[in-house]
Write a sequence for this structure.
């Protein structure tokens, strides 16, 4: 072979191994934020479509791996605004929370603009996530989803549609309503259609389905319904959540509660917006069970049970889908040099917090003090109170402070430390997270982290379990005020 032929041949192979380019709309939404890292893990180059480039909620290690463009599909958009070399696209946008007025018209306009834009690219497949439709549903919200599907199906690409009902996951509107209702109301007052049945599915499974249908030719031009393995009523879902949380709850059905009252009741007693409450009530009123397991069989996916989804949603750390799916691979390495710490956050919803912040001078010495906490060293301030708390824990059958620590200078994820469990430990990331294993009417975390400005953050978080948990926090709060203030000052060496 002539030397001059080597360069074009090498360039040819370079082109062949370039990662496929995926357009992800709704990248900052509930589903999109969990799908993005899953696509990166598969080696795709992801182009995120966002309305505001200044409000991208991704860590730096993710931003380095993606391309993003600013676009609002409702406003007239030039097709040339999208890169032409797109291989596949996800349509995950909606207008329920972003607009006032007739969201039905917005939905249709956005779908039309999206189709016109991607038709000007080399896109081969579009994946659309929609809701379960029923002939019994006449609301414009549900009807719009059928029209969106019709609009998208008219494009010059292969459309794969996935429809799902109730999605269970930390942060989803349904899960937060269920959690608020069960946690706050020993007797739960519900309308008669609480007996309506559905097939709730975990957010992890939804993301897995979305990621796995990509470039599957046997999924082209197909529409699937996905759901969990169980058909449950909303009453079942409330009571099973209570069982997971070990709460005694009763459901009292009031036939006179209509849809309007239900929407206002959810809005007043839970954390969701009125628009989300309204959408959820409509979904509950017209919920229907369905039996479409084709995609499960095709992809070999077995969705988790409702209780398993609940346990995942309220597990010790609120994690996005990526860490859940990366658990096995993370044993050996972290994909694409992404930091696990950037995907880990202590829960916020329904929690009480005592946060202290202080400027430090000697980062290395402060890290040494943080990593030496507990055991014989103690807690730097009012250690005698910590010992009393440990004794109380032992009296109620807990471990107290008897476990101590196995190493006086280092702690690793999974280690026992007095009545704590080390959840995350990284001096490189300057972050340590402890989970309370003492006897508590709730769940507790203690987090230390030093940011890029050398500010030490010490955050105690408590998620109460029912009324007893709230009373416990109120009783202990005065002690926390001076204990945690003294502790951070001693760790930062300002006293």
């Amino acid at each position: 072979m002539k030397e001059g032929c080597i360069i074009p041949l090498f360039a040819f192979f370079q082109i062949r191994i370039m990662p496929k380019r995926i357009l992800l709309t709704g990248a900052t939404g509930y589903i999109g934020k969990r799908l993005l890292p899953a696509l990166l893990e598969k080696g795709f180059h992801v182009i995120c479509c966002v309305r505001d480039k200044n409000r991208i909620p991704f860590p730096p290690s993710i931003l380095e791996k993606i391309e993003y463009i600013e676009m609002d599909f409702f406003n007239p958009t030039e097709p040339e605004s999208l890169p032409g070399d797109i291989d596949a696209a996800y349509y995950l946008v909606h207008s329920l929370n972003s607009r006032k007025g007739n969201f039905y018209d917005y939905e249709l306009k956005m779908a039309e603009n999206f189709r016109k834009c991607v038709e000007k690219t080399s896109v081969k497949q579009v994946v659309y996530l929609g809701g379960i439709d029923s002939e019994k549903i006449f609301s414009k919200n549900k009807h719009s989803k059928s029209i969106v599907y019709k609009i998208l199906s008219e494009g010059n690409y292969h459309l794969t549609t996935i429809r799902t009902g109730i999605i269970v996951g930390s942060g989803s509107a349904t899960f937060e309503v269920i959690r608020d209702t069960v946690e706050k109301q020993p007797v739960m007052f519900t309308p008669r259609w609480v007996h309506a049945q559905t097939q709730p599915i975990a957010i992890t499974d939804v993301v897995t389905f979305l990621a796995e249908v990509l470039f599957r030719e046997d999924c082209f031009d197909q529409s699937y319904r996905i759901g969990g393995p169980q058909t449950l009523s909303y009453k079942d879902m409330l009571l099973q959540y209570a069982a997971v949380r070990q709460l005694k709850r009763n459901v009292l059905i009031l036939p006179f509660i209509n849809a309007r009252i239900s929407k206002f009741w959810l809005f007043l007693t839970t954390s969701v917006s009125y628009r989300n409450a309204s959408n959820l009530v409509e979904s509950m009123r017209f919920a229907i069970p369905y039996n479409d397991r084709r995609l499960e069989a095709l992809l070999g996916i077995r969705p988790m049970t409702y209780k398993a989804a609940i346990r995942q949603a309220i597990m010790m750390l609120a994690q996005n889908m990526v860490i859940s799916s990366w658990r096995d691979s993370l044993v050996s390495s972290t994909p694409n040099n992404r930091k696990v710490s950037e995907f880990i956050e202590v829960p916020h919803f329904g929690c009480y917090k005592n946060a202290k912040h202080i400027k430090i001078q000697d980062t290395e010495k402060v890290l040494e003090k943080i990593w030496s906490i507990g055991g014989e060293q103690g807690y730097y301030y009012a250690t005698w109170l910590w010992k009393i708390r440990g004794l109380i824990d032992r009296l109620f059958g807990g471990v107290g402070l008897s476990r101590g620590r196995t190493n006086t200078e280092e702690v690793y994820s999974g280690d026992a430390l007095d009545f704590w469990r080390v959840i995350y430990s990284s001096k490189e990331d300057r972050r340590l997270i402890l989970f309370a294993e003492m006897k508590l009417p709730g769940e507790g975390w203690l987090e230390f982290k030093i940011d890029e400005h050398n500010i030490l953050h010490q955050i105690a978080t408590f998620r109460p379990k029912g009324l007893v948990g709230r009373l416990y926090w109120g009783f202990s709060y005065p002690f926390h005020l001076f204990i945690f203030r003294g502790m951070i000052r001693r760790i930062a060496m300002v006293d």
